Amino acid sequence: MRYILSSCKNVSGEISVPGDKSISQRAFILNSIANGRAHVGNICVGDDKASVLRCLRSLGVRIVEHSNCRITNSQECFEVFGKGRFGMSKPVDMIFAGNSGTAMRLIVGLLAGSPFYSEITGDDSLVKRPMGRIMKPLSLMGAEILSQNGNDLPPLLINGKSLQGIEYKMPISSAQVKSSLMIAALHSEGKSEITQPSFSRDHTERMMLSMGADIVQDGLKIIVNPSDLTSKNITVPGDISSAAFWMVLGCIHPSSEIKIANIGINSTRLGIIDVLKSMNANLILENEREINNEPIADVIVKSSDLENIEISGDLVPRIIDELPVLALAACFAKGQTVVKDAEELKFKESDRISATVEGLSNLGADIIATEDGFIINGGKKLRGGNCFSYGDHRIAMTMAIAGIMAEGTTTIIDAEAVDVSYPMFWHTLKIICDSLDLRKNE
After folding, report:
1. Is pLDDT at 46 greater than 80 in this prediction?
2. Catalytic residue positions?
3. Which CATH number fits domain 21-226: 1.20.120.330, 3.30.479.30, 3.40.228.10, 3.65.10.10?
4. If I label 130, which of 6, 19, 260, 408 is the partner at 20 to 30 A Cα–Cα?
5. What is the separation of C-alpha 163 from the centre of its chain, rounded to a whole number of angstroms?
6. Residue 219, C-beta contacts closer than 8 angstroms, at least 6 positions apart
7. Cα separations (Å) of 244 from 115, 171, 260, 312?
C-alpha cells in the first residue's frame, strides 16, 4: 500500500496519541504472572498489541476485552486474569510474536524459567533481529535456549529450567534486555544483580515496584529477589514515541501550534523533549501529574527556529526510537547536527541508519550515514519523491512528516507498516494539517 501526500499551509489542533507501547506490553505481561486480576486501559493500538495478547493467550492466560471501562476510564480495556509466577501453561503451537521485539524478548525471559518446552518466532522482520543479547545472560542463569538455525536469530527453542540468580553487567543499555532478565530473575532462586552501563527506560522497575516485587535500584544497578506480584489496574499514558512525530512537525512547520494531551513524561523517555529544547524548540509541558507511578503531562509545541546539536553517549538510549524523526528535525536546523554512538539503530525493525539516510536523501536532504549514526547539514529545502518504509513503522511515519514539509508530492511505499503502532496516524495527519492532499493507493 502507498500513501501519496503533499505540503499543507497550517498545522494546528489538539490531539491524543495511542497508549505507550512499552508500558502496555509490560502491563499485560506482568499482570499475567501476578496473583489476582486487573484491568489495563488506554493500551497501545495496532499489531504490537495483538502480538503480546496472542503470545500470552497461547500460554493459557485469560484476557477479556471490555468497552467503556469505568475502572481505567478507557473506551477499550482488557481484564487480565493473573496465573502467578509459575502458572503459565505449555503452548500447543509455536508462539508467534509478530513484529514485536519487546514481546519476544520479555516473554523469552518468562519462558526461560517456566517448567515446559516452548518455541517462539516472529514475522519476516523479527526473525532477522539478533537475540543473542538475551540468550547469553539467560543461559548464565541456567536457561536452555537455542536458535533453530544456530545463528542467534528466531525461531528460538526454549527448554524451561530452574534458574539461578545472576550478577550481570550489560554490555549495552537496552530496556528490553534488562526487562527480560528482571522477569527471569523473579522466577529464579537467589538474588540477581543487573548493572546497565547507562540509564534506559525504567517502566519495568516502576511497574514491578507498584505490584509488590522485591527489587531495589542502586544507581545503575538493579537488585531483584524472587518474589510474587499482585495484580494492578493500569491506565496507560500516551506514547511519547508516537507524540514525537507531532512534536517535530510542530517545530519544523512555519505555521503550527499543536497540543498533545496526556503524554507519559517518564524521565528515561524525555530524551526527545530534552533534545528538541536544546535545539531551541518552542515547546512546553502543562498539567503535569502522576498516574500509576508514571508521570504525565500535556505537550504544547509551536513553530521554532531550530539549531544544530550533537547527539551521543548516554543520551542515545533515551531517544533510540526517536532518532529517525530527529534526523528530519535536524534537516530544518541551522548548521550541522551529528548523531553517533547509535549503532543499535541497525538492529531495529529495519536498519534505521540506512533507511533514514536513504529516505531523507531521496527528498533532497543533506544527510550521510556513518558506522554509528548520521551527519545532517540543515537548511536544504526538501522536495517530493519516493520513500520506502522497509516494513518499519517509524521510518514510514518519519517520511510522511518529511513529505508534509517537501515541495511537490511524496509517496510512502509499504505505508501499512504504520499499523504496527499507530493505525490512526493518517487520520490524525489529516485532522491537524489544513487542506492536506492525502491519497491512498492500494
Report:
1. no
2. 321
3. 3.65.10.10
4. 19
5. 28
6. none
7. 41, 28, 10, 19
